[in-house]
Amino acid sequence: MAASARSFGAAAALLLALGLTGCTTGDDSPESTGPVVQLGAPGEENRTLSPDEAAALDSPTHSEADVEFMQMMILHHDQALTMTGWVDERTTDRDIRLLAERMRISQEDEMDFMAGWLRDRGTPLRDEHAAHGGGQDMPGMLTDEQFDRLEAAGGEEFERLFLEYMIQHHSGALEMVADLWASYGGQEPAIGQFARHVEGDQGIEITRMQEMLAERTS
Fold first, then answer.
1. CATH architecture of the domain covering 60-217
2. Phi, psi (degrees; rounded to nearest 5) at 32
3. Which of 41, 78, 145, 213 has its CA 20 to 30 A from that of 32?
4. 3-class DSSP state for residue 15?
């Protein structure tokens, strides 16, 4: 009887140890899960999904609002890149030049991301209706008069107009992000992360440009 009790105790201890091993990851990370198996169609074998495939099962898909946001933001960025492209020829101000270069690099990278996002989802890079109007109905976009005035300016006048118009332009981008959230877009992880990046990055740049503008008008 004592031997049986000892055998039962050893077996229970072993089962407990195995159970604990299966429920922990060996560190402080969340509990690991086993492989996810996708059932095959009749006559086909089951398939074990990769971690990325398994995660995608629970990920929200993109919406029409997401597509429109990306298409319009490409046009929005395109105008900003034209504005930054004028800086080196129209001012020698070091701070303006550094700011414009930072904007150029970040927005070119973002345009590449947006174009890839749209291509991966089989959608055109531009909405034909929006492209026909040049996107000037979007928040923050410069009017033809503002655009021509900036292009013709130089020196201190260009610096002031560049800051004023780029603040306007960036504020429009933040409005577009707010519109995306309001339309329940941005639920797909990739576009949600991108929209938050635009929101944070351009918000920081607006604050910096407001400081630079204040220095020039004080």
1. Up-down Bundle (1.20)
2. -75, 160
3. 41
4. helix
